[in-house]
């Protein structure tokens, strides 16, 4: 699926851990990606991390393209099997999500909001997706604002091994209401 916005056309392709490892390494080790907790990872570490995701039955990673060029990362996972096991009452149709916009020296106003909107549209393009679940670090104020802009509501604070997180949910209806999309 592709999403056309005022800042470009967004498409998705599966992340290839070996081909994309160096590119993604530059993204996840950038200071703006501190909440990804990969600041000290080598390229080989990043390749291993994404090989494990590629091999996992309930976790996928994608490169997001803007007008055909790599511009962001999206991960999709089953929160009842990955990330949030035992931390909340999973419902059928729950899909977990992470996203990261590539660092740039020439920021485009509204780009990150367009990315999260495209990511959500991509997830909801699957009719089996009823609700998107996220667990951002409680200190990540920027992502909380972006999440709210696309319809997420914080349900509770949860303690994960690596962070305290705000467990947040967004239904298809909340997303459509937030972004003004047609049902």
Give a written overview of the molecule.
The protein starts with a strand and ends with a helix. α1 (17-28) packs across α2 (43-55). It is an alpha+beta fold and 183 residues long. The longest helix has 14 residues, at 111-124. It has five helices and eight strands. The mean pLDDT is 93.
What is the average per-residue confidence, as pLDDT, rounded to a whole number?
93
Query: What Rg, in angstroms, do the CA atoms define?
Result: 16 Å
Helix content: 25-40%
Q: Please describe the biggest sheet, giving its number of strands, its sense, and whether it closes into a barrel.
A: 8 strands, mixed
Helix-strand makeup class: alpha+beta
Strand order of the largest sheet: 1-2-3-4-5-6-8-7
Shape: globular
* Percentage of residues in DSSP E strands: 25-35%
Uncertain stretches of 5 or more adjacent residues: none
- Compute the separation of the termini in Å: 16 Å
Task: List the secondary-structure elements in sequence, H or E.
Answer: EEHHEEEHEHEEH
Number of discrete helical segments: 5
**Strand elements, count:** 8
How would you concisely characterize the structure shown here?
The protein has five helices and eight strands.
Layout of helices and strands:
Layout (H helix, E strand, L loop, with lengths): L2 E3 L2 E7 L2 H12 L14 H13 L3 E8 L2 E9 L16 E8 L9 H14 L6 E4 L6 H9 L3 E7 L4 E8 H8 L4
Helix pairs in contact: 1-2
Label this structure with key terms.
183 residues, 5 helices, 8 strands, 30% strand
